[in-house]
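Q:
Just now I want nothing more than another pair of eyes on a protein record. Here is the record:
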Amino acid sequence: MRLKDKVIIVTGSTMGIGKAIAKRVVAEGAKVIVHGLEEDLAIQVVAELGAENARLHIEDLSNEGAVQRLVDLAISSWGRLDAIVNNAAVVAASTIDTTDKAFLNRMLDVNTIAPLFLIKAALPPLIESHGAVLNIGSINAWSGEHNLLAYSISKGALMTMTRNLGDSLFREHGVRVNQINPGWVLTEKEIERKREHGLADNWYKDLSKLFAPAGRIIWPEEIAAACIYWLSDESGPISGQVVDLEQFPMIGRNIPKDASTIPHK
């Protein structure tokens, strides 16, 4: 077991990528704090993982003191904290015309500011355990789609934060900070968003190779599998790194001239 006896907080772990990560870290021997807003789904996740392996915290991360309460729950439950996975995020479409200050602030609060202050709250026990931080970003951090402006800004800021803290925290305290940027992943939320756009529930079964060279998009479990390396001791002294997990290169990809739009991720 690659994470035996480690204690890990995974934010946004009631569904999608976060749920897959929570399940995988427990399978690798860790204890996990399950976090999210959907209490009914969270209860199901904890039941699936087993009460001996998981604890539950339901709260908006932008609430005052929320991140400290997550850390306190880990310590009170198992006496230590070895890693945090900043996965929780708000994903919502916006352009420069539809992005107002309140919308951008909400996006930044959850996607960028909350991860920063969870790292800060978790730093004392992470220093003690020589622990790790894994931020879950997005390939939209590099520039983003035209209708994901505010989301892309928030993920770009998260990526800069990862590189900054990945140097300073490891150099000063021995705490590694790295990031995964997933591409297009088949989550429950993605299916719901496409339904809202008028697509059939099985839209993902017949995708153009233009957008998905494999003929399908990425499964949450595939992202979770990649996370284990960064959360385990196997990644050694590697810190401040950002890894894109997509089917095609984000820089230098040749898009046919007749491709007018790319679906949201």
User: Anything to note?
Assistant: Residues 95 and 146 are 6 Å apart (CA to CA).
